[in-house]
Amino acid sequence: MKKDLLSIADLSCEEITLILDTTEAMREIGQRPIKKVPTLRGKTVVNLFYEPSTRTRTSFEIAEKRLSADTLSIPVSTSSVLKGETLVDTALNIEAMQPDMIVLRHASSGAAHLLSRICRSRIINAGDGMHEHPTQALLDAFTIREHKHRIEGLKVTIVGDLLHSRVLRSDALLLTKLGAQVCVCGPATLVPVGIERLGVRVSTSVDEAVADADVIMLLRIQHERMQGAFFPSVREYFNTFGMTKARVARARPDVIIMHPGPMNRGVEIASDVADGPYSVILEQVANGVAVRMAVLYLLAGGVEDEAAA
Amino acid sequence: MDADRMSRTLTRIAHEIVERNRGIEELALVGIRTRGVPIAKRLAHAIGEIAGHEVPTGALDITLYRDDLMRHAVGPQPVVRSTEIPFSIDDKRILLVDDVLYTGRTIRAALDALIDFGRPKVIQLVVLVDRGHRELPIKADYVGKNLPTSASQSVQVHLMEIDGKDEVEIQET
């Protein structure tokens, strides 16, 4: 493994497979009466979250504690960032206290790469702006592999806000790397220019996009990142792109429905689909802890190529 | 040690286990990955032939409990495999099974790992080969063969299930 986990783009297929296989072993720890192993005893992990997060932060914290790391979370709302401290200064000050790893969530794309250059600690990207969210993609791949026993050759359809989604970038990179056919679909105003370079097919009709899909993945409409009018109304979005039972019926009978959360019920996904038998949304959350344990464990080891890292 | 010898050795150990535990009611076998697992399964089968029914077996991966993890500045992390103990170990007589007993550090890690699953009544240690050179105060309860070695040698246990043949050999390194 490299020093840091910044993006899926940096990972080889072998590294991805190693992470997914290690996840398999880590998952069993969560089912024990004593959900803890001594592996990261004496390691300090700082969770630095510049954006609101329930799932990812909780998931990292639980993963760190299950591996016996000493962990602390710094929600920016109560930190010196409010007094005007820059990301670099905050990071250097945290570094001065000798942590071993920093988990960073930040609204700016490339924030984790910036810290990677200036920090001795291992950096894990927990989402940077509209760029990447690698651990989400890894847990998605793990969940798909669990259900389909393979990734190669699957048809994966991703529907929603493609423009603002870091999950889309990480997922598309990872799934195409492992040989899946990824089709993306969303309103033309939310399809970024050059998205084909991720190796995905773009469709403007959701009915066409979901036909024969093995996996349907919904992306949240990110109201907080939208400064312009990307579509006329939420109701119109739901009518045109929302995942309904009727649309799910066009996919393969053993389709699974995924959503990285948080869900907007009645916007990108109908409630009866989110709670339906094909929904694996809560399994994704459960697998998130094991995936993050695997990443923390693997990054805590030696660096393959110190000079390149 | 060849295949025939290995098979007779395991049968002998199975007899010893049944004798020393006065029956098999509370027994369960836990093999340490990788080669302790098939040995545990074979012992369970042999005990089953002696006592009438098989005893439960599990597999334990001790990687996350190793005392040399995080001590090396270089090199990738060892691969973690899954632990599968599909029964409660509380109040059981647990037979911990490994192929080679050497420094004792693997067994130390395995004991820590086992205790995280519950509180067995007894833990006993079964090894196919004891090659000496202990670094911790650990002793096996059942030994297939004592094999005096020097630290520069390595003992390789090959098993049909994993390596396609049953054999124990000493190699100079």
Describe the structure.
The complex is a heterodimer of chains A (309) and B (173). With 309 residues, chain A is an alpha/beta fold. Chain A is built from eleven helices and nine strands. Chain A has helices at 13-29, 55-66, 87-95, 111-118, 134-148, 166-177, 206-210, 234-241, 245-248, 271-274, 281-299; strands at residues 44-49, 70-75, 101-106, 122-128, 155-159, 181-185, 201-203, 215-218, 256-258. Chain A has a five-stranded parallel β-sheet with strand order 7-6-5-8-9. In chain A, strands 2-1-3-4 form a four-stranded parallel β-sheet, with helices on both faces. The N and C termini of chain A lie close together (10 Å). Chain B has one domain (3-172): Rossmann fold (3-Layer(aba) Sandwich). Chain B has helices spanning 3-20, 36-51, 105-115, 160-163, and strands spanning 27-32, 57-60, 93-101, 122-130, 142-146, 153-158, 167-172. In chain B, strand 3, helix 3 (105-115) and strand 4 form a beta-alpha-beta unit. The longest helix of chain B has 18 residues, at 3-20. Chain B is globular. The model of chain B has no long low-confidence stretch (mean pLDDT 94).
Task: Tag the structure with descriptive keywords.
heterodimer; A: 309 residues; alpha/beta; 5-stranded parallel sheet; 11 helices; 37% helix; B: 173 residues; Rossmann fold; two-stranded antiparallel sheet; 4 helices; 28% helix
